[in-house]
Amino acid sequence: MAFELPELPYAHEALEPYIDKQTMEIHHGKHHGGYVTKLNAAVEGTDMTGKSLEELLKDHSDVPAVRNNGGGHWNHSLFWTIMGPDGGGNPTGDIMDAIHEAFGDFEKFKTEFSNAAATRFGSGWAWVCVKDGKLEICSSANQDNPLMPGVGCGGTPILGLDVWEHAYYLKYQNKRPDYIDAFFSVINWEEVNKKFLAAK
Ligand code: MN3
Predict the structure, then answer these.
(1) How far away, in angstroms, is 148 Cα from ligand 1 center?
(2) How many angstroms does the Cα of residue 28 sit away from the middle of ligand 1?
(3) Which of 16, 122, 139, 152 has the smallest number of CB atoms closer than 10 Å to its CB?
């Protein structure tokens, strides 16, 4: 079965004014859509056919087309779900307890995550991962992610921020830190909490 582009769980304009409609249209339809098309082309007719996306990342990230396009598909599929029009604010529940345990308080968590996103040179992602039941922050280049051997903190990502220029350049141009700030106004913490409980 071929991989498919998942529908956005909200309208393209739903994250305005933090992330603009045109960026969402191009990012989801063209960029993510392109990764899915190229991933299917890379897998078709090989012994990788029929493997899950997670299996491909874990076992076949040595194949560049699988690494780049499989990573692109997985990363963006996570990214759309952990944002939402009713997002932002402070997390509650188990995820907040885990943030306190790992980082002291939410502001320290926010600072460390923002630093990881701001200092990732060039294209890549900042991550919050669950490893051995605890939260860790890391970043990775290109479309790599910590499910691939030897990447980042090596846990299961439950929150990711795309810091490729295509994710913010139309609205924020060179001001990546403003985009990172804006991201905190659209994080769907309820969904992140669900992913945390599933991963730990
Ligand atoms: Mn992207």
Answers:
(1) 18
(2) 8
(3) 122
Q: Give residue 64's pLDDT band: very low, low, confident or very high (50, 70, 90).
A: very high
Q: Round to whole Å and give the CA distance between 162 and 168.
A: 9
Q: Is 123 in contact with 142 (CB distance < 8 Å)?
A: yes
SS3 category, 100: helix
- 76 C-alpha vs ligand 1 centroid, how far in Å? 6
CA angle 67–31–36, rounded 5-degree value: 50
Torsion of CA 165, 171, 173, 175, to 10 degrees: -90
Residue 36 pLDDT exceeds 80: yes
CA separation for the pair 32, 6 (Å, rounded): 9
CA distance 179 to 177: 5
What percentage of the chain reaches a pLDDT higher than 70?
100
pLDDT at 1 > cutoff 90: no
The rounded distance, in Å, linking the Cα atoms of 40 and 2 is 6
